[in-house]
Amino acid sequence: MTKDARDNVTLSQGIFIDSIVAGFAGFALSWFITPMDGAVMEKMSGIKPSIQSSLKDAFKTILTKPIKYAKLPQFGYVFGTYSLSYVAKN
Q1: Which of 1, 47, 66, 87 has an alpha carbon 20 to 30 Å from 58's alpha carbon atom?
Q2: pTM of the model as a whole
Q3: Average pLDDT of the chain to the nearest whole number
Q4: Can you give 36-77 as a three-state secondary structure string?
């Protein structure tokens, strides 16, 4: 966006646009961050023997049941954290 175009955007329009972009960015990142975060937690708690096995299971679920995966609370936490961080930063 050019400087002139940015001058014509009101505060509410800027917040709205940033919120939409933040939602897309948070949603896109959540598919990659959530499995990694879960794999580390499962390894450290002893639920899974290795990070690789946990990642394999998570990505299998993402590929076979993406809607079920997107409804997990962990996915929502990561999505919310990244989206709100983006809005706060911009």
Answers
A1: 87
A2: 0.79
A3: 90
A4: HHHHHHHHHHCCCCCHHHHHHHHHHHHHHCHHHHHCCHHHHH
